[in-house]
Amino acid sequence: MQILTMAEQHEKAFQLQQGIFQNSKLTQKKGGVKRWYCDVGLGFKTPKEAIEGTYIDKKCPFTSGTISIRGRILKGVVVSNKMKRTIVIRREYLHYIPKYNRYEKRHKNLSAHLSPAFIGVEAGDLVTVGQCRPISKTVRFNVLKVQKKIVKGVGAKQFTKF
User: What is the pTM of this model?
Assistant: First the structure.
């Protein structure tokens, strides 16, 4: 039997999943608290933590019915994870200069919502993000997949095109 602990209740408002009735008498009889989760589609698997975990996040595409992934699917490297449930991703690309017949390196940073389903995301990890509706002023993407950092060279600032 799974009981909802107060560890998830760290906001001022009581955190619960929309549409799930939290009657304590029914949950004791049927074996634990019900948890709603969904498949975002596009070939991305739902993380195990999203299915079995007890976290509550209304901006998570796996456990919230209000966030749908549509539009662009992008890859990038995590630069910062200092914000609460938000990471900054750096996308590097080459820009062609016709006058000199050469390329120059450029980059863009974008903010993405990091669901609590992904544990231990650090700077340097490669993440796949999907576009969703605007979540906040700067956040329009949600993390869908995380690949841990692979150390290939000595220098930390090497340009890699993926």
Answer: 0.77
